[in-house]
């Protein structure tokens, strides 16, 4: 009897294995790869009558395979619709292969649409199961998203890939550049989203380095709780804002010490917030920390000397605090949008008081007193000490 049970058990296992092998063999959705459109990037612009002008940067497999041919490795198709899904259906009619949004690596939003509001786009970003929710999100300043997709990618095949790589190599936390993260921040009561900015129309000659677009991290767009872009920060102010908001993980910084320049490669960049409520007043302590490696020292300071090294650290800390204070004051007084998440920290520490504040947080935010404390530490001084 025991032998019969064992045989039945083995037979059942064999049948189950055969069934599973049959199920898992082949493509899951029965659509062969050569029947899909390789959709690399999406452009979203405003159109008349509250409609959306959607553009798709689609790879051309034949051109990619030839390598170095005259045909561009991509094409840009566009259509106008009432919402994103309407646009997708109309665009599908223009293509010989099935649309597959899982390949989409980035979404570019034109300046006009971003400054009106992006709220109507948020639903599709998270609801559509075919969409790549980890796609990067960029604002195209000074032009349409369609025109950016049509540009050359320089040493990359696509302008989409160029923008993504610039962000990746500029020290920004990768997950914080995605469209799903933008949507998550927008749903919070005490924090407002920001977005990377790219410029279109500046790369007239791909062989000329002087005419290439600015690095994407050098400018950011600030959004309010209506998902509308309300302002922009450039260069040092943009880097300071990204650090204060918790977006940066590493960055190379050059400062003047004793009349000469020192460059430090910072990593493990962190920020912590500590809020305090005193009556009607709100105070926030912003603590910044980072570890650094000295990449270049043009001064006469001997970094093997403890006192000289501390002098460099002090100079950097003072400059960082000064830049942060100027940038935060500008965001508070000019743009009035809490990209730093001060409100979120109050929410965690004082949930009862926050319930009374969140309704008019945008009015209270400019009045918050902020204290900045920078504590950078040099962990490695490079290969040389004295000059």
Automatic annotation (TrEMBL):
Database matches in Pfam families: Spore_GerAC, Spore_GerAC_N
Residue ranges constituting the Spore germination GerAC-like C-terminal domain according to the UniProt record: 220-382
Chief place where the protein resides: membrane
Origin: domain of life: Bacteria
Keyword terms, alphabetized: Germination, Lipoprotein, Membrane, Palmitate, Signal
Recorded topology in the membrane: Lipid-anchor
GO cellular component: membrane
Keyword Signal: yes
GO biological process: spore germination
Family matches, as InterPro entries: GerAC_N, Spore_GerAC-like, Spore_GerAC-like_C, Spore_GerAC_C_sf
Start and end residues of each Spore germination protein N-terminal domain: 29-198
Subcellular location: Membrane
PANTHER family listed in its UniProt record: SPORE GERMINATION PROTEIN B3 (PTHR35789)
Family stated for the protein in its record: Belongs to the GerABKC lipoprotein family.
Name used for this protein in its record: Uncharacterized protein
């Amino acid at each position: 009897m025991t032998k019969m049970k064992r045989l039945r058990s083995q037979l059942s296992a064999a049948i189950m294995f055969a069934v599973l092998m049959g199920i898992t063999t082949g493509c899951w959705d029965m659509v062969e790869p050569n029947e899909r459109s390789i959709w690399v990037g999406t452009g979203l612009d405003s159109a008349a009558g509250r409609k959306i002008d959607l553009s798709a940067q689609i790879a051309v497999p034949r051109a990619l395979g030839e390598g170095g041919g005259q045909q561009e490795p991509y094409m840009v198709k566009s259509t106008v619709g009432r919402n994103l899904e309407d646009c997708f259906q109309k665009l599908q009619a223009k293509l010989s292969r099935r649309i597959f949004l899982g390949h989409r690596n980035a979404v570019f939003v034109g300046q006009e649409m971003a400054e009106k509001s992006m709220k109507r786009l948020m639903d599709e970003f998270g609801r559509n199961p075919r969409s790549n929710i980890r796609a990067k999100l960029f604002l195209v300043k000074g032009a349409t998203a369609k025109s950016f997709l049509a540009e050359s990618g320089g040493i990359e095949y696509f302008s989409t890939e160029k923008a993504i790589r610039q962000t990746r190599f500029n020290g920004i936390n990768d997950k914080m550049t995605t469209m799903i993260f933008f949507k998550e921040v927008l749903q919070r009561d005490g924090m407002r989203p920001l977005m990377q900015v790219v410029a279109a129309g500046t790369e007239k000659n791909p062989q000329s380095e002087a005419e290439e677009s600015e690095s994407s991290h050098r400018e950011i767009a600030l959004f309010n709780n209506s998902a509308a872009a309300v302002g922009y920060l450039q260069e040092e102010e943009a880097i300071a804002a990204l650090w204060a908001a918790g977006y940066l993980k590493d960055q190379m910084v050059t400062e003047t010490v004793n009349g000469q320049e020192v460059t430090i490669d910072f990593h493990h960049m962190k920020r912590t917030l500590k809020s305090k409520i005193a009556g009607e007043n709100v105070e926030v302590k912003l603590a910044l920390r980072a570890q650094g490696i000295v990449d270049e020292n043009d001064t006469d300071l001997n970094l093997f000397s403890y006192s000289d090294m501390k002098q460099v650290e002090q100079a950097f800390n003072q400059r960082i605090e000064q830049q942060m204070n100027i940038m935060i004051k500008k965001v508070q007084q000019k743009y009035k949008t809490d990209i730093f998440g001060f409100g979120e920290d109050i929410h965690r520490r004082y949930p009862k008081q926050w319930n009374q504040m969140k309704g008019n947080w945008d009015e209270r935010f400019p009045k918050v007193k902020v204290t900045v404390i920078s504590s950078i530490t040099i962990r490695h001084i490079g290969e040389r000490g004295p000059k």
